[in-house]
């Protein structure tokens, strides 16, 4: 490999060593590069030192700039109008940068003051700036993921605002767009017609509202949570199918979705849906509509649930039962996300660590569909790096009832279980530590391996 560095800079490193250094910086600085929106939460946080190094390298030579600029601009987050103006200034001075922007997150700062005179990023107060950005992105036709996330303040205007409707439509209807996230916004019914069947992932955040675009519909419109927004988009567009492969909702699969096939028996509302993610904790999920999976989403096989370690309620009190998922429901693959906090954030004695309680459903009287059980551990981003793996290993040993889980999963109802996976990628655990942990967990769960032949694997 030839590295065209300026000879005036003095002695140069061997090309192979330089390439290895560049790759190491890239991995540490941009762990989310190439990772889909829906998987970012389980991706390690960027190293601030590596980020600074990457930025400095991009200024050092043309060769290093060509390597690092696509990584730096791959995923862009804009939070304020000032951020937006700064980004536009860069794009105007160097238009080629827009070709590197594959993921754009427009997320308003929640810390901004309340009031009608606030200059919100996603409002129509100064639409020319967003219009210019969307024009840049539409011309490049490379955007893969798009997020519109409003601040947690009640807003009256519908979205998209009229001045931006055409430019946002051009973006949302581009065939290369694979993921769309909309949260805390009054999303117009009209906008659903802009979505293409190529859109794979739709995230309807808490507080999304679905309204008609005319002023007359305002008085009679209702405010919907993310899941009900999904229902309305299907139900009111009677001949329309939503081709999402993955959907994230708040706490309920809307029961009104099952009405849709009665209007048009030849169409399935969610024909390509394979994965459903509930953002709220298991304790908040309302089990309705899952029994209608055959007419709602015949390909649906995977579900992701969340368990907050600060919750002190017993999983026995959850309205959602395991039988809703894997007996009457369609799920063969179940992922449970476990959040770990510093010990001073919660009382270790109240941690709901025993998920075997959730799996010990008294309604389980027949074989369930479960084939893969994944437990994903997450932490807060501000957790000090030096204690991440210590906290994880301590939690796994002290706050997880492995013997009880082994006993429950060895029951005949779980005869189809083939794999138990622990995802600890967020914690920067090295290979030796991961393999040691895998060996210990295999020792803690011998019965399910012997009876069902289930394999235990740690992802790091």
Describe the structure.
With 460 residues, this protein is an alpha/beta fold. It folds into two domains: 73-111 and 125-298, Leucine-rich repeat, LRR (right-handed beta-alpha superhelix) (Alpha-Beta Horseshoe), CATH 3.80.10; 301-460, no CATH class. It has 15 helices and 15 strands. The strands form two sheets. It has a twelve-stranded parallel sheet with strand order 1-2-3-5-7-9-10-11-12-13-14-15. Strands 4-6-8 form a three-stranded parallel sheet, covered by helices on one side. Helix 1 (15-29) crosses helix 2.
Please give the alpha-carbon distance between the first and last residues: 31 Å
Number of strands: 15
What is the average of the pLDDT values?
79
Low-confidence parts lasting 5 or more residues at pLDDT below 50?
1-8, 112-116, 211-225, 235-239, 258-264
User: Helices and strands, in N-to-C order?
Assistant: HHHEHEHEEHEEEEHEHEHEHEHEHHEHHE
CATH topology of the largest domain: Leucine-rich repeat, LRR (right-handed beta-alpha superhelix)
The main sheet orders its strands as 1-2-3-5-7-9-10-11-12-13-14-15
Question: Which CATH class of the largest domain is shown?
Answer: Alpha Beta
The rough form would be described as globular
Evaluate the radius of gyration.
24 Å
Strand content: 15-25%
Biggest β-sheet, characterized? 12 strands, parallel
What is the number of domains? 2
The count of helical stretches stands at: 15
Protein name: F-box domain-containing protein
Organism: Coprinopsis marcescibilis (Agaric fungus)
